[in-house]
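Quick check before the chapter quiz. The format below is the same one you will see on the exam, so make sure you can read both the input and the output lines.
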Amino acid sequence: MKLYLLTQKTKLVVEKLKPLHLPLILCALIIVLAALSYIVFHNPHQQLQHDIFATAQKIHHFYRDRPGYWQLATNTAIEDKLVVGTLAKKEEFDVRIGQGLDGDTGLPSDMSFNIVLRHLNKSACINLSELPISEESKLLLQKITLINDNEMIEYAWGAENPLPIARYSMRQKCQPRENTLVWTFQ
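Here is the expected output.
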């Protein structure tokens, strides 16, 4: 008899909560879908790419009234507070700004400069090179160069390897470690 009363009470509680099942299930489904979309579509290197182009923009504005990029180097860019956000704080890889791979000091005749990220893993190499480039950034960017043990490939506007770099094209070119990406800006 007690078991019968307990099951009857349970049935009454379930009947009262039935109208809440659908909204709870929908709410849980929305939360799960939001979490999955964040995991699938979130690019951890998107902010870093934004900071690379923001730094290039600041450097370009800072040197616009000067003869070329004279005396631009990593240290002077940091001292003049031209390095933006996460680019200045990243310790995963080596950041160089200036001329060449080592960020050498610019001369008065230099009409372009490089932002170099060294020691990139495969994920960072692929994500940073394949991210879309904004219209404003396209005006400053001359080329992107990938350098690793196997190859050195330049991607430039209208070249054999054209910019912007096509999605999934870097999967075979980036190595598991020690990739270097060089952005050349004018």
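If your answer matched, good. The radius of gyration is 26 Å.
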